[in-house]
Specification:
alpha/beta; 8 helices; about 40% helix; globular
Length: about 230
């Protein structure tokens, strides 16, 4: 059995040359974000955005919830993949960054498919639950503050329909999750969540060794109580 290929810059360039289908709008958004001090590392990698769009199509998702908008790259990718009448609700705490996002959504012609909510992610999820009830979203994408991931994940399972998909970004967290000397709160939060997902019998699970780690979590059609995996 072959081992994991080490992804050098040269190999990444090759992968993008044979598989990436971005366009001028997406490239311009990445370029603008790159000029923001200390913020360019937060933008979604283009191949991840393309994967998110494919996942929207594969799941037939018409209702998408995104926790963490930033400058709106992933939002744009998913919005483009929605079926007619589809909608994405995206939430963030920053008015500054989401102003950038809205310019590009307008330019791409998908602004009418996107509902932006500013405020705390957990509070927004609670508001949506009160407004719409449970199991009303087909896909939830989580890419926000790492300390809040466990809360967002639990809320996501409530919002997802049976068979729905949660996508969690940064679950390898710059490789720090495997470093025993890394004990900062964000690394510990991701490490603890990863460990808990393994024993969560409510879902199917796959952690993709891609970008900064992308975990796919499919809510079981019949969610059972308890978290022991057998």
């Amino acid at each position: 059995m072959a081992g994991q290929v080490e992804l050098s810059e040269r190999l990444l360039d090759y992968v993008r040359s044979v598989s990436l289908r971005d366009d001028e709008i997406l490239r311009d958004l990445i370029a603008e974000t790159a000029f923001m001090p200390a913020m360019n590392a937060m933008v979604t990698m283009p191949e991840e955005g393309q994967l998110l769009a494919m996942l929207v199509g594969l799941t037939g998702a018409a209702r998408v919830l995104e926790i963490g908008t930033f400058t709106g790259y992933s939002t744009l990718c998913m919005a483009r993949a929605l079926p007619p009448g589809g909608r994405i609700v995206t939430c963030d705490i920053s008015e500054r960054w989401t102003r950038v996002a809205q310019r590009y959504w307008e330019r791409a012609g998908v602004r009418d498919r996107i509902e932006l909510r500013l405020g705390d992610g957990a509070e927004t999820m609670a508001d949506l639950l009160a407004e719409n009830g449970a199991e009303t979203f087909d896909l939830v994408f989580i890419d926000a503050d790492k300390a809040g991931y466990a809360r967002y994940y639990e809320a996501a399972l409530t919002h997802l329909r049976p068979g729905g998909l949660a996508v969690l970004d940064n679950t390898l967290y710059f490789g720090r999750v495997a470093d025993p000397e890394a004990d900062d709160p964000d690394t510990e939060a991701i490490r603890d969540l990863n460990a808990s997902l393994l024993t969560d019998s409510r879902v199917e699970l796959s952690l993709l060794v891609m970008a900064d780690g992308i975990t796919l979590v499919r809510k079981n059609d019949k969610v059972q109580s308890g978290r022991d995996f057998s």
